[in-house]
Amino acid sequence: MKVAVLCEFSGRVRHAFEENGYDAVSFDLLDTEIPGKHIIGDITKLGPGYFKKFDLVVAHPPCTDLAVSGARWFKYKQKEQREALDFVRWIMNLPVKHMAIENPVSIISSHIRKPDQIIQPWQFGHGETKKTCLWLKNLPPLTPTDIVGGRNQRVHRLGPSKDRWKERSRTYPGIAKAMADQWGKYVLEAYK
């Protein structure tokens, strides 16, 4: 099974699929933090047809201009928001049968459609809160794998730094593993 993980510099989701034996490749404007198959560059330049060869796409469009956590800046970012929403629509229209788009609570919900599921890290083994929305195409919602105590808002409370956005955007390993385990199995079953 071939998996494309879009807009992922960390390599965590790609790596989780690789660990399960899938042929996974990540794409981002930045280099990857975890060695593996990774393509650096603007995915729109590859064109939608490039992605036909993939059985599953998991996408993490940049949330800088989408997340409601930045709502106080929205009036200054209207052009950037339009472009970010157009990019999400571009991803949603890729010619693949199975897809998940991941983003925090964002304007995707009010401008495109509501998410199919909202998950939290504490449902997947991490004692933290960070509402994460999933827009799904021919995939089931994720089933929590390890509900743990603790409701730390670590990501929300990160202090200012030049790499704050990177820390906030990394997928939790427990969530990445659930995606690989559950969606990988589901897609394989769909092709039997």
Number of strands: 7
Strand arrangement, largest sheet? Answer: 3-2-1-4-5-7-6
Distance N terminus to C terminus?
12 Å
- The CATH class is identified as Alpha Beta
CATH architecture: 3-Layer(aba) Sandwich
Run of helices and strands: EHEEEHEHEEHH
Assign the CATH topology: Rossmann fold
Pfam families: DNA_methylase
InterPro entries: C5_MeTfrase, SAM-dependent_MTases_sf
Keywords: Methyltransferase, Restriction system, Transferase
GO molecular function: methyltransferase activity
Overview of the structural elements:
By secondary structure, the chain is of the alpha/beta class. Helix content is 27%, strand content 18%. It has helices at residues 12-19, 78-92, 108-111, 164-169, 173-190; strands at residues 2-6, 23-28, 38-40, 56-59, 98-104, 117-119, 132-137. A 7-stranded mixed beta sheet has the order 3-2-1-4-5-7-6, sandwiched between helices. Helix 1 crosses helix 5. The longest helix is centred in the last third of the chain and has 18 residues, at 173-190. The relative contact order is 0.17. The mean pLDDT is 89. InterPro entries: C5_MeTfrase, SAM-dependent_MTases_sf. GO terms for molecular function: methyltransferase activity. Pfam families: DNA_methylase.
